[in-house]
Amino acid sequence: MTRQQIRDLKRAVSHESNKNAMLALLERSVRFGHKRLALIRCIQAERLGIPLSREILNYCQDVADSLPVDALQKVVRQATLIGTVH
């Protein structure tokens, strides 16, 4: 996936709440082993009502469990900002 494709997906999510784009970004984050970014995207995906696979949920739960409380709170705040797609 090119940088331009990633930008296009982010734009589709932030401007249109495109669920397919959100899922593609989340799956990419998990595949690349992103931790905080995957967790942010997971929270955003759940807010959009996207059904997530057990694999993604387990990965994100493991990330959340590994974070100190203050770091987890920061991630949740970042994920809940309107129009935020990292």
Short description:
With 86 residues, this protein is mainly α. The protein has 5 helices and no strands.
**Could you report the average pLDDT, rounded to the nearest whole number?**
93
- What would you call the shape? globular
CA-CA gap between termini: 16 Å
Structural class: mainly alpha
Helix content: over 70%
Please give the oligomerization state of what you see: single chain
Tally of DSSP β-strands? 0
Mind summarizing the main beta sheet? none
Structural overview:
The protein is an all-alpha fold and 86 residues long. The chain has helices at 3-16, 19-31, 36-47, 54-66, 69-80. The relative contact order is 0.16. The mean pLDDT is 93.
Question: What's the arrangement of secondary structure elements?
Answer:
Layout: H1 3-16, H2 19-31, H3 36-47, H4 54-66, H5 69-80
What are the salient characteristics of this protein?
mainly alpha; 5 helices; 0% strand; globular
